Every structure is written in C-alpha cells, then in structure tokens.
Amino acid sequence: MAGHSKWKNIQGRKNAQDAKRGKIFQKLSREIYMAAKAGGADPATNAALRLVMDKAKAANMPNDNIDRAIKKASSAGENEQYDEITYEGYGPAGVAILVYALTDNRNRTATNVRVAFTRNGGSLGETGSVSYMFDRKGYIAIERSGLSIDEDTMFENILEAGAEDLETSEEVFEIYTAPEDFTTVRDALEKDGYTLAQAELTMVPQTLVELEEEQQEQLQILIDKLEEDDDVSEVFTSADM
Fold this sequence. Notes:
Oligomer: single chain
Keywords: Cytoplasm, DNA-binding, Transcription, Transcription regulation
Family: Belongs to the TACO1 family.
GO molecular function: DNA binding
Subcellular location: Cytoplasm
Strand order of the largest sheet: 3-1-2-9
Protein name: Probable transcriptional regulatory protein CI088_10025
Shape: globular
Distance between the termini: 17 Å
C-alpha cells in the first residue's frame, strides 16, 4: 500500500463536502433506507446498516435523519426499489474513475453520468475497463496529535487487531484492512481507546497517476459534476492529488 495515502485527499475535499452537506445527507438517507430494507432495521444484526450509519455519523448527519430513513424502510412497500450500479471511465491524463450510484431510474442516471464525463474532459468506459485497477479495502485513519505512540508500536497493535498494512505521516496513522476484516479491526482499535478520524470501506488504486495543476483542476470539476448528481453515491479515482 506504500504511497497510497488517502488522508491528504480526504482533508483537501472536506471543505467542499461541507458546502454540499444537505445533498450528502440526502444520499446517505437513501443508503440507510436501502440497507435497512434489505437486512432489517437493527444495526446489531445488520452489518451493512451499521456501516452506513457510521458513515452518516462521521458526516455529522443528525440522528433524527438516520432514524427517519430507517423507519421509512420499515414501512416501505414492495414496489419501492433502488438499483446499485457501477460506472467506469477515464479523466484527464487517463486517470481511472469509478462511480457508484444508487438509483430508481437506470436510464436517467446513465444519461447524467455520461454527460458529466463527456462535457468535462472525461470518457465513459465499458464495464471492467478500470475496476481491475482498484482494490476494495477497509480504511481507518488515526490522527497522531496527542498520541505518544511510535510507528513500530502502532504497527504491532494494528496487526494484532487483524489489519494488513500501515502508512505513517507526521499527521496521521493510515490503516488498511481486508474488507471482511474492517469491522473487527475498527472495533478492536476503538476498544483499545483510539479515536478514529476516518473509518470506511473504500476503493484503493493500485497505481497513482500524477497530474499537472491544470489537469487536477479539470478532474476536480468532473468529480464535482458527478457528485452533484442525486443518484451518485461515491466517486473514486487513481489521481495523486
């Protein structure tokens, strides 16, 4: 995982996401609804629901919004159905882009995603064209401020918890896990008293693509256009930004 630091990207995009918080809550409500409808309203027995609830809390989504989405799923009719769809494409300098969508209208979402790519310097690819360039991983970030623990000790701790790898910078410990071990590792670290700045399942690019400043700006516009779509849940790229 060396060289695949996500922290600077997370921090760099935080302010932009804060400005779009209302739309983020709307998307999270849909994910909570889907998870609760598929696996039940109890996060203790529904791992998918617990994960998205954690994601919502990390985004400072009010508990009332979370409860409302779960209650809606519990009373929803059989005709309400959303599909999970993955779109794959390319951005400036051949950057690989994965787009995850949750939609009740496949044609609408496909059209919107295609337009976002073609109008903003990208191109939509075929299924499988870039997904092989990413690995599904659990990702946990622990900020080092206030911690009196060195890298070697942290590495021993995360291995004992079941994690795969550790990336260390002056600001943060970044921990990677196999997707099936993510919940176990996260819970173990929290039990050990660590405060997690970020904890999520994510897609990690196998190789990062460096971009010129102008290309970075062009890619950010494309990402913003994709994320503005109500149906788009997550966007991952192989850009080193």
